[in-house]
Specification:
This protein is α+β, with helices and mostly antiparallel strands. The protein contains nine helices and 15 strands. 43% of the residues are buried. InterPro entries: AmpC-like (IPR050491), Beta-lactam-related (IPR001466), Beta-lactam/transpept-like (IPR012338).
Length: 358
């Protein structure tokens, strides 16, 4: 017979074990992150892990601004680079849901003079299978890097380059495709890309600390970006955000990125059928499937499927991993392109997966 005294003792032991496990988990996470983010006086980062919508880990490392000696906080705003592609892909699916476009449409339906535009579909732009030239690999990129470019000018910059392969023949990661998608979003919606993302995604998901990147506007709690040189850290190279545009020009926080993940899970932005289009694998022309949906790499951790994407832009790197079966989301944001959170975030996800499955 279990007495009240025994029950209290058992509960005390259980509570003590939970505290010990939580402390052990936190130490493992700290130790892993500090293998890369180990200079408290240098640029740093923010890492957050959530399980079923609740934070299991949320910490900042290093400095948000070296000149002001300002410590990083979990609330700091970072440029997220190519994680922008998730938002561009969902914006396209929102327009499809509204009946303003179809992912199987040829891009010539929207951009009349695009070379061979009748053979390239929106779907192929989303999945990096279009074959069009990636503008970041063009030698002339330096001539426009600091110019204010309209979306049409950006498309004109690369559209006449020879294609790398026939549409649908292979998967090859491509920034140009997502710039074209941003231009199509503007043409189909009648809004600028910035306004469309702000009104239809940021505001609906409650992402009040997310922005289209700018170096001029005052961004509260902005983390400043850095490069590392032989003699030490330097401020990031200045570029015009109209160049990466819809392929890499958004800013956000770890907390807002969790709100983004929740909005996707709860079908706040899209109906379930449209949402699932982003998270399924598609075949190439030869029938072979590849590990990318619309704006997400579809991989696995310990054999359990995940959705992930990283980002890299002057002065910043980012990485996010989501494990749907366990509702685990891990985000890492860095304000120096010398520190990559990619492998750390994947390892944090693995540790968390093992922890919640115990």
């Amino acid at each position: 017979m279990i007495t009240q005294k025994t029950s209290v003792a058992l509960l005390s032991i259980l509570f003590f074990c939970c505290v010990i496990n939580a402390q052990s988990y936190e130490k493992k996470m700290d130790s892993l992150i500090k293998t890369e983010f180990n200079d408290p006086a240098g640029p740093g980062g923010v890492f957050m892990v959530s399980h079923k919508g609740k934070n299991m880990y949320r910490k900042a490392f290093g400095k948000a601004n070296l000149e002001l000696d300002a410590a990083m906080t979990p609330e700091n705003v970072f440029q997220i680079g190519s994680m922008t592609k998730q938002f561009t892909a969902v914006a396209i699916l929102m327009l499809e849901q509204q009946g303003k476009l179809n992912v199987n449409d040829p891009i010539s339906k929207y951009i009349k003079d695009y070379p061979s535009g009748d053979k390239i579909t929106i779907h192929q732009l989303l999945t990096h299978t279009s074959g069009i030239k990636d503008f970041t690999k063009m030698k002339t990129i330096s001539t426009i890097a600091q110019k204010e470019m309209k979306p049409e000018m950006m498309v004109d910059f690369f559209k006449n380059e020879p294609v790398d392969f026939s549409p649908g023949d292979k998967f090859e990661y491509n920034n140009s495709g997502y710039v074209v998608l941003g231009y199509i979003i503007e043409l189909a919606s009648g809004q600028t890309y910035e306004d469309f993302i702000k009104k239809n995604i940021f505001e609906k998901a409650g992402m009040s600390h997310s922005y289209y990147a700018t170096d001029r506007q005052i961004i509260p709690k902005r983390a400043y970006g850095y490069h590392q040189k032989e003699h030490g850290f330097v401020n990031k190279t200045v570029i015009s955000f109209s160049v990466p545009f819809s392929s890499g020009s958004l800013m956000s926080t770890a907390d807002d990125m969790l709100k983004w993940q929740k909005a996707l899970n709860q079908n706040t932005l899209l109906n379930p059928a449209e949402t699932q289009k982003a998270f399924r694998k598609y075949p190439l022309n030869n029938g072979e499937e590849f590990n990318y949906g619309y704006g997400w790499h579809l991989k696995d951790i310990n054999g359990i499927p995940d959705r992930e994407h990283g980002g890299s832009i002057f002065g910043f790197k980012s990485m996010g991993v989501y494990i749907p079966s366990e509702d685990i989301y891990v985000i890492g944001l860095s304000n120096c392109d010398c520190h990559s959170p990619t492998e750390i975030v994947r390892k944090l996800a693995k540790i968390t997966l093992e922890s919640v499955k115990k």
